[in-house]
Design a protein that fits this description.
By secondary structure, this protein is mostly helical. The chain has 17 helices and eleven strands.
Amino acid sequence: MARALRLLRGATGPERGLGPGPGPGPRVRFGPSPTGFLHLGGLRTALYNYIFAKKHQGTFILRVEDTDQNRVVPGAAEGIEDMLDWAGIPPDESPRRGGSFGPYQQSRRLDLYRRASDVLLERGAAYRCFCTPQRLELLKKEALRSQQTPRYDNRCRHLTPTEVSEKLSQGLDWVVRFRLEKGVEPFQDLVYGWNKHEVADVEGDPVILKGDGFPTYHLANVVDDHYMGISHVLRGTEWLTSTSKHLLLYKAFGWDPPQFGHLPLLLNKDGGKLSKRQGDIFLERFAQDGYLPEALLDIITNCGSGFTEKQMGRTLEELISQFEIGRITTHSALLDLEKLPEFNRIHLTRHIENEGLRQKLIRELQLLVEHVYGDQQVDQEVLEKEYVERVLLLRKGHISLLKNLVSSDYSYLWVRPSVSREQLQTISAEVDEIGKLVLG
């Protein structure tokens, strides 16, 4: 055991007893799985962590949780960090930016998890399980047939050291399971108050290290949060019932746990789950459609709680100054995306009024005009900076998206009106005669 403990202590990161890290404030993390694009629910979790860190002069960390290799989408991790940058909430430490507590990608920390599981094995807090997938599937089917919740029966927990050695010598496949103990201690959640869940009464011993050497969420997050000096864990409420399990892991390691705060769900306005199927909640889609990141940050906080004030048009700086974690309620946040154009109109107006931001809009609008009307333009003067700027200032407050200005309603701003002979004939049958008189 002593050797395993020495190895574990030598891993990257500080001992929790030495403090949460170099900065004076809290250290928080956003840990997405790179299984696709970043969506509004993930953005909201990242935003609350970012706001909490900046409110208290802390550090916001992006940690890529890619232990489920079968679901990893190539390029997704880079895309997530790109979208955090686009949204204006860049991490202080990340796979791209680096930091003193890396690597910031769990697939590159496998040796650390293996050493951690060795410590638990030597302490008797974990054990090797040799049950085959076929046996586990039979347990599941039997439970479902009996209308019970499937759970592992902890069979390998009772193997003697001799039996374990025999199975290892036979070259049998194994995983590491954590021994769940009864009598968990309650913990005070920053949002939900005092909580505890007797996980040993409803679950079998969970797998913490898989046969391929990759950890499960439970081990990886506890180990990483400890060695990255995470002081506060702000995550979705779906993990609330697992927190007692994680606290048992902290106890088995002899580590002080961070403070936990579980954020209520972000739902559709009708109370249904946000759907990813149509792709209408992914940040890439909003960016492509021309929505401003400030509008998205505004709407996903406006529908929730945690702020001293609640009004449309708040900037990120205002969100940080108004944030109080004690004001987060347990009620789900109902998101009405039909209001997003109005949120965007408010923030677009602010961009137009700001001279520095207006210059960026001018360049974007020039490109849009060329793209939409390039083959119809007669006067190149409409692309001149002064003209485009005048259009922006005149239509300030009347448009929700910049691309509204290149719609057919505003085509007269960019091209000379043109009417076909067929259209004129619907007005008068004498169109040819009128044309000769007018044109001479």
